[in-house]
Write a structure and sequence with these properties.
Largest sheet: 3 strands, antiparallel
Number of helices: 5
CATH topology of the largest domain: Arc Repressor Mutant, subunit A
CATH class of the largest domain: Mainly Alpha
CATH superfamily of the largest domain: Winged helix-like DNA-binding domain superfamily/Winged helix DNA-binding domain
Helix content: over 70%
Number of strands: 3
Shape: elongated
Structural class: alpha+beta
Oligomer: single chain
Number of domains: 2
Distance between the termini: 63 Å
Strand order of the largest sheet: 1-3-2
Length: 116
C-alpha cells in the first residue's frame, strides 16, 4: 500500500513540474476560468493549454463545469494551492540562503584582494 501511495505522490509532483501548469493553478486560485480566458491570460495556444488542462484534470487537480459551448476550470481541492504556496516559500528561503552565501563569498574575495 505504501508503495502505491508513493507512486501516486510522485505522479502529482510530476504533474506540477510544468511551468504552464503552475501558471494555470496560479490563475485559477482567483476563481473559475474558461479555456478561452485561461489561454488569453497565459498567452498560450488553446490546443497546448488543453493538453495541460487534461493532465491536471486526470490527476484531479482541477475540475470542470460545462456551460453551453464553454468549459470552465477550477481548483478541485484548495489544499493543492496551499501545497504550492508552501513549496514556493521553501524556494524563496533557498534563494535567500543562496544570496547570503554569494554575498559572503563576494565580501571574502574583496577582503582577500585588498590584502594582496
Amino acid at each position: 500500500m505504501e508503495e502505491k501511495i508513493i507512486q501516486l505522490h510522485a505522479e502529482i509532483c510530476k504533474c506540477l513540474a510544468s511551468p504552464v501548469r503552475l501558471k494555470v493553478l496560479n490563475v485559477l486560485r482567483k476563481g473559475e476560468k474558461s479555456v478561452d480566458v485561461l489561454a488569453k491570460i497565459l498567452g498560450v495556444q488553446k490546443a497546448n493549454l488543453s493538453q495541460h488542462l487534461g493532465i491536471l484534470r486526470q490527476r484531479k487537480i482541477v475540475t470542470t463545469r460545462k456551460a453551453g459551448l464553454n468549459i470552465f476550470y477550477s481548483i478541485a481541492n484548495p489544499k493543492m494551492i496551499k501545497a504550492c504556496d508552501i513549496l514556493r516559500e521553501v524556494l524563496f528561503e533557498q534563494l535567500q540562503e543562496s544570496e547570503k552565501l554569494v554575498k559572503g563569498i563576494t565580501k571574502k574575495e574583496i577582503i582577500m584582494r585588498r590584502k594582496k
